[in-house]
Amino acid sequence: MSASAARTCPVSVVIVNYKSYEELDACLASLENAGPPGREVIVVDHDSSALELARVQARYPVTRVFAVERNPGFSAGVNTGAHLAAGRHLLILNPDTRVEPGAVEAMVDYLETHPDTAVVGARVQNPSGTVQRSARRFPTMLTGLAGRTSLFTRMWPDNPLSRRDLLADASTAAPREVDWVAGSCMAVKADAFAQVGGMDEQFFLYWEDADLCKRLKEAGWRTVYLPSAVVVHDVGRSRRHARTLSVRAFHRSAYLYFAKHRAGRFRPISLPVAGALVFGRMVAKLAVQLITRRDRSDR
Fold it and tell me: Could you confirm whether domain 9-140+167-237 is CATH 3.90.550.10?
């Protein structure tokens, strides 16, 4: 997406922030000593606070910050960061992540030494050290039932549907080709990202990562899960500022992904059915959230 003909640094870290300044501070601190040498860090700050962003800039003066008054969505923020980037590769990071030593170098090195690979995903861990199962097969209508944190998966973790969908766990030690990896941490070749037009901005939040990997695969690229690169993700810290909006965005994006990639030749039938199922599930999730005051991602 960058207009720069010459990539002047190995990797541009792109962080899209939404009201998560405390988490952003910890993320940037973890990147301070992360390589490789010459890498740049870009923060795209949505619904920006001038005071908070000034504090970020004062503490991390080499970080490039770009303030956006409104919140146009995660995909739009990534595309903005990619347009500003000078790196041969993009490292897309959530602000509520912390990069472990060596992780950036490992992902960049893999992309540099594997010309057919466009995306590398890290081993994403919870603060407790458990693995978030961020490497997946492309979503189907059953993903809502057997997603990473769905009730069905929590009650029966080793069920066949979840085993099919979730491709890497704590025992995964070697790099593995997968369909897609979570956008909380993904390294992408900048030229491949530009080749497919970057993130689809119709996805306000959620499933834009699966969509990107899907389009890259259709263009002939591979996506690889790299467990030697470790990132800690305190999931949902940004989402707490807009819980209802997040649930709606999740289900809207799920329907959009289905319409774009899975509806097939029976669209006149499959789309209304999918829409009814997604809408019913969204209403149920909102009701549970209202009653329990708990906020869970289903991915």
Answer: yes
